[in-house]
Amino acid sequence: MIRFFxxxxxxxxxxxxxxxxxxxxxxxxxxxxxxxxxxxxxYRIDKTYPHLDRIYRIIESxxxxxxxxxxxxxxxxxxxxxDDACRYNNYSSTLTYxxxxxxxxxxxxxxxFFNIFSVRFLAGDPxxxxxPDDVVLTETFAKRIFGRTDPIGRTLVAEYEYPLIVKGIVKxxxxxxxxxxxxLTSSARKIICEGTSYGENKNVYYFRLFLLLKANTETVRLxxxxxxxxxxxxxxxxxxxxxxxxxxxxxxxxxxxxLERSQTLHANIMLIRLLVIVTTAIILLxxxxxxxxxxxxxxxxxxxxAIKKCTGAHNKxxxxxxxxxxxxxxxxxxxxxxxxxxxxxxFIEKFIGSPIDTGILFLPVVLISIVGGILLLAILSGFYPAxxxxxxxxxxxxxxxxxxxxxxxxxxxxxxxxxxxxSVALIISLFILSRxxxxxxxxxxxxDTEKLLRVDxxxxxxxxxxxxxxxxxxxxxxxxICFTHGSPGSIYSTSSWDVNDFDGYMSELSxxxxFFNxxxxxxxIGRLPLPGDFNKVCYINETAFKTSGWETFEGHDYHGLEIIxxxxxxxxxxxxxxxxxxxIRLTSDMGISHMSLRISNNDIxxxxxxxxxxxGEVFPDHELKYQFYDEWLDSMYKSEEKLxxxxxxxxxxxxxxxxxxxxxxxxxxxRRRIKExxxxxxxxxxxxxxxxxxxxxxxxxxxxxxxxxAVPIWFVMNKWLQTFAFHTDAExxxxxxxxxxxxxxxxxxxxxxxIRAATKNxxxxxxxx
Length: 769
Prior knowledge:
By secondary structure, this protein is an alpha+beta fold. The strands form two sheets. Strands 13, 14, 15, 16, 17, 18, 19, 20, 21, 22 and 23 form an eleven-stranded mixed β-sheet that branches. The protein has a six-stranded mixed beta barrel with strand order 3-4-9-6-8-7. A hairpin with a 3-residue loop joins strand 7 and strand 8 (162-170). Helix 2 packs across helix 10 (315-352), helix 2 (15-43) packs antiparallel against helix 20 (638-672) and helix 14 packs across helix 22 (687-721). The protein is globular. The two termini are 42 Å apart. Mean pLDDT is 82; it is low at 402-408.
C-alpha cells in the first residue's frame, strides 16, 4: 500500500504527462468499450436458439437463396440425416382488422419452423399453422391490433383479400436474431409469393429453406450426396434448373454476405472491420503518446534513479516501479472511460444505426477479458520506458547527466510519424468517402427526381387507381401521373432476350403512355407514344440497342411488343451497378405496383395534403405509403453514409489524441532547449528563426507520415471506389490537402508554446548560469 501511494505521488508530480496520458487513454478506452459492446452484440446474433449447431440454410452456388417449394419434401423424404426442414420467406405486408390496416413483417413458413427455431407459444401450439387460413401473431403485434382483447379465433384480412383466423400467439423474436417477424402465415396460402409460370396454369413457387440436421451429421458428405443426386434432375420450367447447393451454418449466416435476396438480416461487415481497425489505431495512438511523454519526462527523474540505485535498488525494482505507474494510469483511465462511454454511446449509436447494449461489458467473461486488455495496454505502454530507465547505471547517470538529457529522440520521432500517418489516412478516407457520397447524391440519374413522388399501389386497389389519378389531376399542383410495375431503383421483372448471342436478362419496366411526361427521360431516336399505343409498343434503352447489334430498331419487337424508340440510358437500379439493358413496356399485363407523380409547383406540403385527402376518400381502408424519389434512391447508400460518419467521428478523436501527444512533446522539447533558445537570442537570433528551429521537426514528421500513409490508403480507397459502377476518383489534390491539414493541425497545436518560448526574455533562462 505504501508503495502504491509512493508511485501515485510520482505520477501526479509531473502533471502535464499525467493529464495528457489519462486524457488520451480514457478517451480511447471509452470508444473501445462502446465498440466492443457493439461487436459482441453482433456476434451474439442468433446465439440463443437451442438447436443452433444443427440448423443450416442452403443456397445455390451462385448465391441464390430460393428453391422450388417441393424441394423441402424431397430432402426430408430422401435423406435421413435431415431431421426437419421448413420453407421460409419474409415480406412487409398488411393485415386488416375492422377496416384498420396494420403493416408488419410477414413470415411465410410451415409448422416445422417452430420446431427448428424453438419458438415459444403463449397461446396455441405448432399445429396452429397447419391450415392454409391460419395465422400466428407475435405478442407485441397482437397487442398492437387487439390491445388486451383475446385475439384467438378472430379473423384478420391479409393483403386486403385473404381472411385468416388467429390460431396462436408466440413470444417476440429475440432482439439478437437475424429472423424478425410480426406474424406467421402458412406456405400453403401464398399471400405473397415468388414464382414462375410456364403455361397451362403450371406455376412454380420458391422459398428459402432451413434444415435441422441430426447430431454429428457430416455436412460435406451430405451436400456431396445431394449434389450428386440432383445433378440429373430436369425440371419442366426452363428458367430454373437444379444447381450445386451449399450448406451454411445458421450461426454463420448473419456474417455471410453476397446472398441474393436472403430475407434475413446480415451484418455490415465493412463497418465492423472499420470500427475494429480505427479503434485499434486510436488505442495505439494513446500508447504512443504515453511512451513519448514518459521517455521525455523521465529525464527529470535521473537523479531519483541514481540515488535509489546507489542505496541498493536493483534494476528489477526500478522496472517494477515504472511499470506500476503505467498500471495505475491505465486503470485510472479505465474507470474514467466507463463514465465517458455513457456520453459517447448515443453518438456512436447514431452513425452505426442500431442500439448498443453496454450492459454486455459487465458479463463476467467479458469483464475479465476487458481487465486483461487493460493489463496488456499497461504493459505495452510502460514496458519500454521502464526498461530503458531501469538499465541505466548510477555512475553513468551522474557523470553524463547533461548528455542524457540530449539523448537522440529516434523512437519518439518514429512514434510521432506513425501518429501523423494515422491522422493523414483518416483525413484522406473522410475526404474520399464524403466526396463519393456527394457524387452519388448529385449525379444525374438520367431522369429528373426533383418534385417526383413515388406511391405504393397495392394490387387489390389497382382497379380504382385510374379514379385516383383523375381526381389528383384535377389539382393544378400535380403536373402528370403514370403507373408502373416496379420503379426506378426497384425493378421487379426480367426476361430472357434472344438477340445477338446476348447471355443475360433484360430488365423490364411496365408503364403507361404518361411515362415520358412524368420521368422526363430523353428519347434518343423514335417517337413519343400515342394514346392508341398502349399494350402494343415498347422502348429499349441505349445499352439494349447497342447489345442488339441492330442498325435500326424499326421492324423489331420485344416479346410481341413493337419497338418504337430508344431512350437515353438512365440509372434504373443504383450506382453500384452499371447500366444494363432495359425494356420499357407500355402495357398493363403485369399489373401496377407504383404511382409516380410529377409535382408542378413549389408548395409541396399543400400537394401532399391533397394526396392524403384524396387517397383517404378513394381508398379509406388502405394505408398511404409514399416517398420522394430522391429520398428513396439516396436511402440505397445509407451504409456509405454510416462509414463516412464513423470515419469522421474517429478522425476527430484520433487528431485530438495526436494533438495531445504533440502538445506534450512540444512542452518537453521547449523545456529541454530553453537555455539554447536563450543563448541564441542573446547572440542575435530572430524570433522567426527560433520558431523555425522549434517547429521544423513537427513539419518533418508530418511530411514523413504523409508519404508513409498516402500509398496504402490510396490503394484501399481506390478499391472501395471500384465497388461503384459510377464513382469519383481519388485525385492527387485530396492527398495534398490532407497532408497540409495534418501539418497545419500539428503546427497550431505547438505554435503558442513555440511563440511563448521564442519571445521570452533570455535573462529568465540564463539568470542562474
